[in-house]
Amino acid sequence: MLLADPDAIVVNSFSKCGFYVYPDISHTGLTSWRLCERALQEAHVALTPGRGFGMHTAETHVRLSYATSTDDLHEGIARLKRFMATLR
Question: Per-residue pLDDT tens for 51-66?
Answer without folding.
Answer: 877 655 788 889 889 8
